[in-house]
């Protein structure tokens, strides 16, 4: 979880991982130069599965995401931004899918957009089949970054490209779509 001035939602994001039905996880928090109370919030958690790192200054999202990938020790990496939350069954469902479908490199989920009060605003239903996803990527980003689970070995070989600072996730999905089922 990249963290940059995230005090408003950080606890909700962390709690959504702590409350997962899947319990064999590590949460890597990387503070990317926050100037608010994000560090104090993160350090208040004593769960041994949470690993806290701090960049020297603001290094940016791509640097921070690639650092998290390098630090991860699990078979899969699930992304979650510090202003998002995951449903309690998310990790369980995604691990089951990737365990059963070894020919897939990554999977994502649909999402529900909520406002600051937690009120549901709209649901985003993404393409489902790998072929549909690959076709959709020709026109738009098919995945919600915070819903992705991907095999760690893929990201070690093909990390985020620092040459795409504004659409780093979209560029990565397009590149990986040529190599893996999604």
Topology readout:
Elements: E1 2-3, H1 10-18, E2 27-31, H2 38-43, E3 50-54, H3 61-71, E4 76-78, H4 90-100, E5 106-107, E6 111-114, E7 120-124, H5 130-136, E8 149-151, H6 152-157, H7 168-177
Ranges where pLDDT stays below 50 over 5 or more residues in a row are: none
- Percent helix: 25-40%
Given helix and strand content, the structural type is alpha/beta
Spatial strand sequence of the major β-sheet: 1-2-3
* Helix-strand sequence: EHEHEHEHEEEHEHH
Top keywords for this entry?
alpha/beta, 3-stranded parallel β-sheet, 8 strands, 16% strand, 182 residues
Condensed summary:
The chain is α/β, with parallel strands linked by helices and 182 residues long. It contains seven helices and eight strands.
Describe the structure.
- By secondary structure, the chain is α/β, with parallel strands linked by helices.
- The chain has helices at 10-18, 38-43, 61-71, 90-100, 130-136, 152-157, 168-177, and strands at 2-3, 27-31, 50-54, 76-78, 106-107, 111-114, 120-124, 149-151.
- The strands form three sheets. A three-stranded parallel β-sheet has the order 1-2-3, sandwiched between helices. Strands 4-8-5 form a three-stranded antiparallel β-sheet.
- Helix 2 (38-43) links the parallel strand 2 and strand 3.
- The longest helix has 11 residues, at 61-71.
- The two termini are 22 Å apart.
- The mean pLDDT is 93.
């Amino acid at each position: 979880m990249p963290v940059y001035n995230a005090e408003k939602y950080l606890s909700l994001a962390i709690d959504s991982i702590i409350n997962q039905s899947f319990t064999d996880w590590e949460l890597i928090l990387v503070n990317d130069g926050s100037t608010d109370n994000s560090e104090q919030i993160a350090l208040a958690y004593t769960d041994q599965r949470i690993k806290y790192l701090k960049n020297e200054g603001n290094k940016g999202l791509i640097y921070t995401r690639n650092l998290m990938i390098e630090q991860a020790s699990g078979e899969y990496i699930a992304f979650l931004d510090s202003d998002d939350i995951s449903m309690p069954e998310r990790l369980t469902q995604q691990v089951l899918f990737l365990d059963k479908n070894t020919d897939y490199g990554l999977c994502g989920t649909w999402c529900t957009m909520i406002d600051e009060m937690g009120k549901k605003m709209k649901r985003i239903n993404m393409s489902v089949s790998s072929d549909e996803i690959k076709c959709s990527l020709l026109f738009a980003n098919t995945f919600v970054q915070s819903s992705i689970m991907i095999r760690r070995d893929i990201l070690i070989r093909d990390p985020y490209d620092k040459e795409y600072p504004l659409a780093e996730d979209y560029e990565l999905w397009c590149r990986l779509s040529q190599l893996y089922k999604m």
